[in-house]
Design a protein that fits this description.
The chain contains 12 helices and 5 strands. With 499 residues, it is an alpha+beta fold. Helix 3 runs antiparallel to helix 6, helix 9 packs antiparallel against helix 10 and helix 10 packs antiparallel against helix 11.
Length: 499
């Protein structure tokens, strides 16, 4: 049987034409229509306003990277935060979406290459006598056709439509990778916030239990004084009311605590009914968080990186839309064997081949290409606005939490003094009551004030811990734009999970 190489030599008999067309297509393909991407400018302040008058971590360039929650020095929290990456289902969705975006890059890149098909077919047919030219009783004889074709077609990327589409897909995949990191950071920050809220509730419960124990002793003292005829029945009832009210407050903390515990279970991918956290009152101050310069924030926020990559994708889509205005060139070729006899099917005389370029230009489309180009430009403008809004929101978040930490630190100092004064007032008033110089109502008032101030101090500490977590979150959690996969990385095929 003759070699298929001979078929190819005959197919390329018009070698000069083939090389000329292909060479010209490759030369033109070096250029791409549409605007080249330039990162939009944004207004960046020289310093954070709320940093004034507030101490920050030193050195400035030593910021948390990776496991940022370790700044809090809580071993149990470290274990919980690690489980978010492993088991959280929302994060699994974001990871799958990144792999989907990376597959879209492969799909876009496939348009660079020719499409080749091969197959074999057999047909048995018979023409009518009239078409075959027979008259009378004669009929046409049935015939068989054996066909073994190899077809190829290629549309050179002369105007850069494919190149722009690949650029858009690559930028979209990078944006998806940034979305994955933003989701990871957000979920980890949510878990740490819930954890410290739970520990704050435990601190409140501890305070209320201790206060209730003190009130029981006070009730016992009042009952003894009532039995001795020194105190009135009203004093006993007031003491009982105060005790039961405090016990009810302690019980009420269990509602929020259970909800926080269930939320943490969901974040680490476990059923709420199989997860519990032991009683652990908050007993630590928020860590010093390295803030850095405002200009660094643009490189440290994965959501800002995602918004910027979507601008690049939208910019490339403009070029892909504008390429539709230009003619398309298609090169097609086919070769193979065709015979009516199976025994001679794959013999040299039964070969066939064809080759030819085609140029197509759309003359009228009812404004479709113009509308698609306008749509691409509008998407680009929207992406720029989204990016700039993300930057503004990021600066707002940093300023908000810097202000919260600075003001809450001052408030905590003043509140601590209020707690000391309230405790001294309770001691003083209780001694006066025992001496019979004041009524029990005065004792209740001072005890209530003291309890309120102590609860306020605990709440302030919880708010400071939350603000610290939020500040780390809005600063990017130690993430950096250099962690984004490159265009080559997102163009590689494979089953690797995550960027």
């Amino acid at each position: 049987m003759p070699s298929m190489r001979r078929v190819w030599r005959e197919l390329t008999g018009a070698k000069g034409l083939l090389l000329a067309v292909a060479g010209g297509a490759l030369f033109l393909g070096a250029c791409s229509v549409g605007p080249d991407y330039v990162r939009p400018t944004v207004m960046v302040p020289p310093v954070f306003k709320e940093m004034s008058g507030w101490k920050v971590a030193r050195p400035q360039d030593h910021r948390s990277r990776g496991k940022w929650w370790e700044l809090f020095g809580d071993t149990y929290l470290n274990g919980l935060a690690e489980q978010v990456t492993v088991s959280n289902q929302t994060l699994a969705v974001a990871e799958a979406q990144f792999r989907q975006a990376r597959a879209l890059v492969q799909a876009a890149r496939a348009a660079y290459f020719p499409t080749a098909t091969a197959g074999a077919s057999f047909a048995r047919s018979q023409q009518s006598s009239q078409i075959a030219g027979f008259t009378g009783s004669k009929t046409a004889s049935p015939s068989s056709t054996f066909l073994l074709p190899l077809n190829a077609s290629w549309e050179p990327d002369i105007w850069g439509r494919v190149r722009r589409s690949v650029e858009a897909s690559q930028a979209g995949a990078q944006a998806s990778a940034a979305d994955l990191e933003a989701a990871r950071l957000s979920l980890q920050a949510e878990l740490v916030q819930d954890y410290f809220q739970l520990r704050t509730l435990d601190a409140q419960k501890k305070l209320l239990d201790m206060t209730a124990a003190a009130f029981r002793k006070g009730l016992e003292l009042t009952r003894n004084r009532y039995g001795s005829g020194v105190a009135s029945r009203a004093d006993v009832l007031q003491a009982e009311t105060q005790l039961k009210s405090t016990e009810a407050q302690a019980i009420d903390t269990g509602v929020q605590r259970a909800q926080m515990e269930h939320a943490i279970a969901t974040l680490i991918g476990r059923p709420a009914s199989t997860f519990s956290i032991s009683f652990m009152p908050v007993d630590t101050l928020p860590p010093e968080v390295p803030v850095g310069l405002p200009s660094e924030l643009l490189e440290r926020r994965p959501d800002i990186a995602a918004a910027e990559r979507r601008i690049a994708a939208a910019n490339a889509q403009i070029g892909a839309a504008e390429a539709a205005y230009y003619p398309s060139v298609t090169l097609t070729a086919s070769a193979g064997f065709e015979s009516s006899d199976l025994s001679h099917w794959l013999t040299w005389p039964n070969r066939f081949w064809s080759f030819g370029p085609a140029i197509t230009e759309t003359l009228y489309d009812g404004g479709l290409r113009g509308a698609q180009t306008d749509q691409a430009r509008a998407l680009y403008d929207a992406s720029v606005a989204t990016y700039r809004q993300a930057v503004l929101t990021a600066f707002q978040g940093v300023e908000d939490n810097l202000a919260a930490l600075r003001i809450l630190e001052q408030e905590a100092g003043v509140q601590g003094e209020a707690v000391k004064a309230a405790q001294q007032s309770v001691t003083f008033t209780t001694n006066q009551y025992r001496a019979g110089t004041v009524s029990y109502l005065d004792v209740i008032v001072t005890q209530t004030v003291a309890l309120t101030n102590e609860l306020t101090a605990i709440n302030i500490l919880g708010r400071r811990m939350t603000a610290s977590v939020l500040l780390i979150n809005v600063l990017g959690g130690g993430w950096d734009v250099s962690a984004l996969p490159s265009e080559n990385d997102v163009s590689r095929s494979g089953g690797k999970k995550g960027p």
